[in-house]
Structures are given as structure tokens and as C-alpha cells.
Write a structure and sequence with these properties.
By secondary structure, this protein is of the alpha+beta class. The strands form 6 sheets. The chain has an 8-stranded mixed beta sheet. A two-stranded antiparallel sheet has the order 1-2. Strands 9-10 form a two-stranded antiparallel ribbon.
Length: 543
């Protein structure tokens, strides 16, 4: 959010060395490296851009920092909040590190600001409720690894720690900066601003970096989110510690995968770097197999399944953005797109000079389940939805070809049955994944001009299916209602029994084959009210 004039190059910044605190606070004097916007300037910046909720949050942060200052301490913005400001992005998540105050006094101050929630041990982080979100407050702390598990850390808070030492424990240089929101001073001991402006992702401290292998995944998701280039020594360090990933709890992976898939400008950049760094070789061999699996050039001129997957995932990222899909629904679309061809390595065959992968849709469900488990996705609804989308991702084009190309009418019942079979996924979700699959390929040679090529931009099969499903009001419902309901049979004089389901299923099956209306169904049931439900069901089965 800083304008060019607000950040002065080092050569233009006078060497300012001042005592930040009196000696009693035991905080060393430090050099001010950069001058950013102070509190008043930042308020004006937010106001000029109409970011009024952000103004309320920032006022809350400033008020808190003022209280800390009056008590003899200093609160600094750290990590992503400083990075976002430099990148001219609104700061959504404030992380504050407090220097020079006893932990108990800090707790008292925090409690006066309202609702809090403490996470971790040794005063790791206290989440403070802000007007629009949360503010994370912590003390500088030392962490030392005591084992290979994700909980094997010894953590101790040290409010007397220097800003430089505290910064050294942060993963990458771009996250090592700290800023005083009151004065605008930006402390940058590891050239984080320079690396950020040059698009370089660089480890801050190699010894501290290796203490948490999860930083390997943080590296690739930052590459995808910010289009960064990983510095060579940092890349070698990541390759060295990647075997340690298997000792981490799987639930820690989920958040990093969500950020990678949902926040990346181009998820393919992150995924490609994960392959190049050997992360998939270490953790997910089912993904590595995609790069060794060829495809039929007429359908996939882009090359192997891995190349196609990268292209499809980027298309999916655009699709969820265009459709305003967020949260778990967006995660589902991205996961299903990434996994949609996991079945191809096991089904690939060469027949009559062509590459075929018949049945790869259903075959992809098992490796998809394995992958979701490996990255900690245990939510049953998410898993079932992704499985359905992977198994059925070719259905839109199959139904479309039947009706449009082969003149085989697809009944309304067939569309309704698809909606029912897909549950808990929806036709809208299926079309998004199928569209990403269809558009994530190419370039194709122009048949009218072999000197030209093109990338697919339209997906008529998806548009056709969505229109049919929306007309039937089954595009977004998780499970369409049966044509015949149990209460209908009770109203017609039938006593509840297990044969209710038999008849209801028979009617739904008929609806799939023929466009029979609910009124026609009820009339047939009335005509044969003297017969048993099993006999009536048999009538529908024979229609």
C-alpha cells in the first residue's frame, strides 16, 4: 500500500540510530532502514481509497499500540501485514509483536480491549477481536526443535529480545520485516523489501528455517500466490529437509493447500515448483505418475497428463473467481480439478495407434482419496463431493454428444438422475470442473489455416447442461426430490411400508427414461389403487 515516495531507498535514508527504549527496558538501539507511512498518513490513504472497514481495524490497532507505548513497551506490525502494505494491498490480518513488557502486564492490557483467545503455549499468540476480524498479538519468542513431530518444540517468550533476533526466526526475508504503525519506521535487517520488490523468495536464516519442515509447503504456496522466484540456496535447503514432511501431522498440510489453491494467482506455478523441488516425489507419488502418462495428441496437444492438469487448475482458479465461489465450495472445485485425471496412469492403453484411458474417471477416485488423506482433508462432505466430481467429470460432454451430435434425446429424467447421482456434489460444480478440464488444453491447430493455432475458449456442453438443469431447478440442489413422495402414497390410502421405496425408485427410474410428469404418475397410482405397491412398481418398470 506504500506509494513510491513513501519508501526511501537505503542510500537516501540517513543513518538514524536512536534508543528505542530506556535502558531499563533492555531493548537494543536499532537502525531505521526504511520510512513508511505513519499512522496519520495511513489513515488518509485508507480514507482516500474508500476502505472504511480497514480504517476501523487500523484505528483499533493504533489505539492498542498507543496503550503499549504508554506502558513503556513497543508494538510492531510483523510478517504478512508489513509485506501486504509494501505490496499496496489492504491489510486484512494484523500480526503485532510486543517488545519490552512483562507477559502478565500485556495480558492485562489485552483483556481491556475485549474478547481474546489464546493459542499455543508460552504466550504463543493471543487473538484479539477487532471491529472486522482479529488481531494476533504475541511476544518475541525462541523456538527450538526437540523432536521430529509437529509438537516437538520448546517455546519461550522473551520480551527483551532484539527486533533483529526476532526477525531472524521468520521463514522468508519478505516476512522478516517489522513496522511501527505509529511512526512508520520499517525495520528490515535481512533485505526483505529488496527481495520482495525483485520477486525473490529467500530463506531468512537457514538454521532456524529447518526447524519447521512445513515451511517447505509455505515456500511453494508463496511462489503461486506472488509469482516469486526461489533463490538457489533456499531451493537446495528445501530439497534437503523435504523428507521431514512425513513427520508432520496431516492437518497442518490442509491450510497450506487451501492457500496454494485458493489464493494463488496461478496455482500451476506453485504446483510446478513442488514437482521440481521433489515434494510430490517425497509425499504424493500418485501426482508424479501424471508426468509420466502420455495423452492422445488430437485431444491433448499440450502433452502429458501433468501438463494438462496444470493448465486445468489455472482455468479452475479463474472459473471460481468469475462465479464468486469461495470457501469450501471453491476448495472442492480446485481439489476436484487437480485430481480429475488421477485415474489415467492406471488405465492408459495404446490401441490402434492411439492413446486411450477408458474408465479413468472412476479409476481416479481411489488415488484421489489417498491424496486427500495425505494432505489432511478428512471432512466427509468435501471428500464425497470431490469423489463424485472426479468420477463424473466427463458426463457433461457425454450427455451433450448424445443429444446434439448423435440425435439421441436426453430426457429431463436423465438430467434429474444425474443431479441425484452426483449428491452431495451439484451439476453447477460438475460443470465448473468439466469446463476447467475442457479449456485447460491446447493449443490446437486451426483446421482452416494450419499455420495458426488456438486455445479453446467456449464449452457448449457445459452451457447446455446448465440450462437444462436450471430449467428443471436441479442445477444447484444437492439432491433433487423424488417425483413421487411417501406422503403422496399415504394421501392415496396406502399404509407406510418398505414397498414405498420400491415404488418411488421405480417412478424415478421411469422418469429417467421418459419425460413423465408428476401428475401422470399420480394418475397411474390412482388407477391401480387396488393393487399392491409392488405390483404398481412393476407397472412403472414395464412402461
Amino acid at each position: 500500500m506504500l506509494k513510491e515516495k513513501d519508501i526511501q531507498p537505503r542510500a537516501q535514508v540517513a543513518d538514524i540510530t536512536e534508543a528505542m527504549f530506556d535502558d531499563k527496558e533492555n531493548i537494543n538501539a536499532r537502525e531505521v532502514i526504511h520510512k513508511g507511512m505513519n499512522a496519520e498518513e495511513y489513515f488518509w490513504f485508507l480514507n482516500a481509497n474508500g476502505l472504511f472497514e480497514d480504517m476501523e481495524n487500523f484505528k483499533f490497532v493504533v489505539d492498542f499500540c498507543e496503550v503499549i507505548k504508554k506502558q513503556g513497551g513497543r508494538a510492531l506490525m510483523v510478517g504478512g501485514s508489513v509485506r501486504d502494505e509494501i505490496m499496496k494491498k489492504p491489510i486484512k490480518d494484523y500480526d503485532l509483536e510486543v517488545y519490552g513488557l512483562d507477559p502478565e502486564l500485556l495480558r492485562e492490557i489485552i483483556s481491556d480491549f475485549g474478547h481474546t483467545k489464546e493459542t499455543g503455549s508460552a504466550f504463543a499468540v493471543i487473538k484479539l477481536k477487532a471491529p472486522h476480524g482479529e488481531v494476533d498479538v504475541s511476544l518475541p519468542r525462541r523456538e527450538s526443535k526437540t523432536g521430529k513431530g509437529h509438537k516437538d518444540f520448546a517455546i519461550s517468550a522473551d520480551p527483551s529480545m532484539s527486533i533483529k533476533e526476532a526477525a531472524s526466526r521468520r521463514d522468508f526475508t519478505m516476512n522478516s520485516m517489522a513496522k511501527d504503525p505509529l511512526t512508520g519506521e520499517i525495520f528490515d535487517y535481512f533485505s526483505g523489501m529488496e527481495d520482495l520488490q525483485n520477486g525473490i523468495l529467500k530463506v531468512t536464516d537457514s538454521e532456524k528455517f529447518v526447524e519447521d519442515p512445513l515451511r517447505v509447503l509455505r515456500a511453494v504456496q508463496f511462489i503461486g500466490r506472488m509469482d516469486l522466484m526461489l533463490e538457489d540456496e533456499s531451493a537446495n535447503l528445501i530439497r534437503k529437509i523435504r523428507p521431514e514432511l512425513k513427520y508432520l501431522s496431516k492437518e497442518r498440510f490442509t491450510a497450506e493447500w487451501e492457500k496454494l489453491l485458493l489464493r494463488s494467482r496461478q496455482p500451476s506455478l506453485a504446483l510446478r515448483s513442488a514437482m521440481e523441488l521433489g515434494i510430490f516425489h517425497e509425499m504424493h507419488p500418485e501426482v508424479v505418475a501424471l508426468a509420466r502418462t502420455p495423452q492422445e495428441a488430437d485431444w491433448h496437444p499440450e502433452g502429458d497428463v501433468w501438463t494438462h492438469t496444470l493448465m486445468a487448475v489455472d482455468k479452475a482458479a479463474n472459473i471460481i473467481k468469475e462465479n464468486g465461489v469461495t470457501g469450501d465450495d471453491a476448495f472442492i472445485i480446485m481439489l476436484a480439478t487437480f485430481c480429475h485425471d488421477f485415474g489415467k496412469p492406471a488405465t492408459i492403453k495404446f490401441e490402434n495407434g492411439r492413446v486411450r484411458a477408458l474408465g479413468h474417471e472412476e479409476a481416479g477416485v481411489e488415488p484421489t482419496g489417498k491424496f486427500l488423506t495425505e494432505i489432511g482433508v478428512e471432512n466427509l462432505k468435501i471428500r464425497k463431493t470431490v469423489f463424485k466430481l472426479v468420477a463424473e467429470h466427463l458426463r457433461p460432454i457425454s450427455l451433450y454428444n448424445s443429444e446434439i451430435r448423435h440425435n439421441q434425446k436426453v430426457s429431463d429424467g436423465a438430467i434429474e438422475k444425474l443431479a441425484k447421482d452426483l449428491a452431495p456434489a451439484t451439476i453447477e460444480q460438475l460443470v465448473m470442473v468439466s469446463r476447467a478440464d475442457k479449456l485447460g488444453r491446447g493449443p490446437f491447430v486451426d483446421k482452416n489455416d494450419p499455420e495458426k493455432s488456438f486455445m479453446p475458449k467456449e464449452y457448449p456442453a457445459g452451457d447446455w447442461l446448465l440450462e437444462r438443469a436450471r430449467n428443471l431447478r436441479v442445477s444447484s440442489k444437492e439432491k433433487p426430490k423424488p417425483v413421487l413422495m411417501g406422503r403422496d402414497l399415504i394421501q392415496l390410502g396406502h399404509k407406510p411400508s418398505s414397498d414405498f421405496g420400491l415404488l418411488i425408485n421405480a417412478v424415478d427410474n421411469l422418469r429417467t427414461r421418459k419425460n413423465i410428469s408428476r401428475e401422470e404418475v399420480l394418475e397411474i397410482v390412482r388407477e391401480h389403487k387396488e393393487k399392491s405397491l409392488a405390483e404398481i412398481a412393476d407397472i412403472f418398470n414395464k412402461v
